[in-house]
Specification:
This protein is of the alpha+beta class. Helix content is about 20%, strand content about 25%. The chain has 1 helix and 4 strands. The strands form 2 sheets. It has a two-stranded antiparallel ribbon. The protein has a two-stranded antiparallel sheet with strand order 3-4. Strand 3 and strand 4 form a beta hairpin. The longest helix has 14 residues. The radius of gyration is 13 Å and the shape is elongated.
């Protein structure tokens, strides 16, 4: 799994099933500078939560990528 620096911006996109109903482009930035290791959130946790919210609206699973490599956060 890729290691991402604090402040990395992740991006994912998905078309709504059915063709002409639109789509979404989603991004998030995670910075854990002010947290403890116990309370830190991982990029994978955030990516999975956002993807689950989109799936509840009918979108397919959204895979987010970071700029390094580029690497998928939640393959």
């Amino acid at each position: 799994m890729a290691v991402f620096a604090n402040g990395t911006t992740f991006r994912g996109l998905a078309d709504y099933p059915g063709g002409n109903d639109g789509g979404v482009i989603l991004s998030f930035t995670l910075d854990n500078h002010l947290t403890t290791p116990v309370s830190a959130l991982t990029p994978q946790e955030i990516a999975n939560a956002i993807s689950a919210a989109a799936q509840a609206k009918g979108y397919p699973r959204i895979v987010f990528s970071g700029p390094q490599i580029p690497a998928d956060v939640n393959p």
